[in-house]
């Protein structure tokens, strides 16, 4: 599931652009920038760059998204990227799919995504046949203390 989540974020990510200020004068492709110029990094455009991605404007769940800038890169890589992937791919989606029987898009309906700097679903027309009850914890399961480990 996590690979599919990465593929979706690589093509249509939740943050569309990020403003930056130029630290020192430089030129790229005959375009000059001066120190303190303000620029906007367009993540959605970068993730559709045909120089880096085959069929760059088509969603492919198997797409190699290792060059995606959805969560930043280098020292600016999002500290919450792994947590958000785990929460969605390993917790939220499996919980939804295990409880909502035959979850599916409403036939003929379209999901809409909106926003510019911050993007997200405006609607998600879904339907399902039945709902399974949430599992009840046994007496032992409810007494465990949550634990976290910070990797070094």
Explain the overall architecture.
The chain is α+β, with helices and mostly antiparallel strands and 152 residues long. The protein is elongated and about 60 Å long. 9% of the residues are buried. The two termini are 26 Å apart. The model is unreliable at 1-10 and 146-152 (pLDDT under 50). It has a domain at 2-103. It has three helices and ten strands; from the N terminus they run αββββααββββββ. A hairpin with a 2-residue loop joins strand 2 and strand 3. Helix 1 crosses helix 3 (81-99). The longest helix has 19 residues, at 81-99.
Query: Count of DSSP helices?
Result: 3
Q: What is the count of β-strands?
A: 10
What is the helix/strand order?
Answer: HEEEEHHEEEEEE
Secondary-structure class:
alpha+beta
- Give the rounded overall mean pLDDT: 77
Which ranges are low-confidence, i.e. pLDDT below 50, for 5 or more consecutive residues?
1-10, 146-152
Shape summary: elongated
Looking across the biggest beta sheet, what order are the strands in? 1-4
Helix content: 10-25%
Give me the Rg, rounded. 20 Å
Largest sheet: 2 strands, antiparallel
Percent of residues in β-strands: 15-25%
Measured between the Cα atoms of the first and last residue, the distance is 26 Å
Key phrases:
single chain; 152 residues; alpha+beta; 3 helices; 10 strands
Question: Quick recap of the structure?
Answer:
This protein has 152 residues and is an alpha+beta fold. Helix content is 22%, strand content 20%. The protein has a domain of 102 residues.
